[in-house]
Amino acid sequence: MTEPLADTIARKTKEIEPYLTTTINDPEMVRIYSKVSEAFARRIEAMFESEDSLQAAYKARFPGLEFDRTDRWHLILAKELQDAWHEHGPVVKASVTPYDRNWILAILGELLDFNLFSQVLLNLQDWGLLRYRVADVEADTAKLQAKWARKSPSPFDAKAKMVKQASKPEDIDFNHDLSTLKSLRIIPKIAPGLSFRVTPKGSTPALVDSANLSMLGVGGDQYLLVPSSFKVAYITWETTPEVMTPTEDGKFRHDLIDYPFTSKSGGDTLNSVMAVRLLAAVLYKHLPISNPKVVLPRMTSIMVMTDADITLVENFADMVSQGWITDEAWPVTYHRDRRTP
C-alpha cells in the first residue's frame, strides 16, 4: 500500500534529524528547523498538485491580479515559508534569517522530489548576490551599435535571427554579436526580486524567469561582479543522458518522483529540463549548508557562486561524469571563472 504523503514527509524528517543533530549543536534548533521544513513541504506538495491549486495560491496572495506562473512566485513562496516559521519557529524570532533559510532549504531538499525542490530553490535563493557591471554593458552596447550602424542585416534588427550553419566569417561575426546583444539586453533587467516560473506536478517545468536570467549565455557572465570572498564556477555539457523513462500509456517517469509526466513535444524537452533540474538540486545539496551560494541552472550549463571551497564543484563534476547521479555516465566539463582565485 502506498504511504500517505504526509506520513512520507514526517518519516523523512525523522530520518535526517540524527544528521542535523551532529551538524547543529543545538537540539532546539534541530527541532525547529525540522518542524518548519516539514510544514513548508506539506504546503508545497499541496500547492503544486495542479494548475488549479497553483492558481488558488496565487489568488490568495494577489487577489486583484491575473494569474501568472512566472511573476511574483518568489514573494508567494517566501510568504509560505514565513507562515510555516510563524507556526513552528521560536517566539522570540519573528522572521526567517538567511542562515535559517539555508538550513530549511537543505532539509527541504530531502523532503521534496527534485522537480518541486528545484522550483522552490530557484525562487528562494539570494539573487541579491548576483550583481552586474551595468555601466560596462551600456558601453559595449554602444560599441556594437556603432559597428553595425551602416550594415544590413544587423543584430539590432527587430526580427534578427541566428544564421543557421554559419560558416562565412561575416555570418559567424553576426551570430556572435547577436548572442552578445541578447545578453546585454538581459543584464540591466536583473534585480534581486527574481521570480522563476512554477509548474504543477506532471507538466514540463520550463526554465523561465521574470528577467530572462535563465536565458543569459555564459558569455554574459563576463559582466558579473564577483565579491572578493566568492568564487564562480561552471559545469557544462554537450549531450544530455536519458533520465525520463517512457511508459506504455505515453507518459514519462523518473525513479525518484512518484507521479508521471506528460509531454507534448515527445519527451526531449522534458528530459533536458528534468536532467538539469536534477543536476542543480543535487549540486546545491552537495555544497556546505551554511555558506552563501547561488546555483543557476541553464539548459546546457550550471553556474555556481559561493564562498565555499570551489573545488567541491570540480569534484561534483567528476562524479557526475562517472555516472554518480544518472544511470549512465554524463560527460560534463568543469570551468573555473578566470576571476576566481
Features:
3 domains, 10 helices, four-stranded antiparallel sheet, 45% helix
Could you explain how this protein is built, in words?
There is one protein chain. With 341 residues, the chain is an alpha+beta fold. The protein folds into three domains: 1-112, no CATH class; 134-189, no CATH class; 199-341, no CATH class. It has helices at residues 5-23, 27-47, 51-61, 73-88, 98-111, 114-124, 134-147, 169-186, 268-286, 311-321, and strands at 131-132, 224-225, 231-236, 245-246, 252-253, 293-298, 301-306, 333-336. The strands form three sheets. Strands 6-7-3-8 form a four-stranded antiparallel β-sheet, covered by helices on one side. The chain has a two-stranded antiparallel sheet with strand order 1-2. A hairpin with a 2-residue loop joins strand 6 and strand 7. Helix 4 packs across helix 6. The protein starts with a helix and ends in a 5-residue tail after the last strand.
> Based on helices, strands and strand pairing, what is the structural class?
alpha+beta
Oligomer: single chain
Name the strands of the widest sheet in spatial order.
Answer: 6-7-3-8
Level of helix content?
40-55%
Shape: globular
Q: What string gives the helices and strands in order?
A: HHHHHHEHHEEEEHEEHE
Overall radius of gyration: 21 Å
Our measurement of the CA-to-CA distance between the termini, rounded to an integer number of angstroms, reads 53 Å
Average pLDDT metric: 90
Low-confidence stretches: none
Number of domains: 3
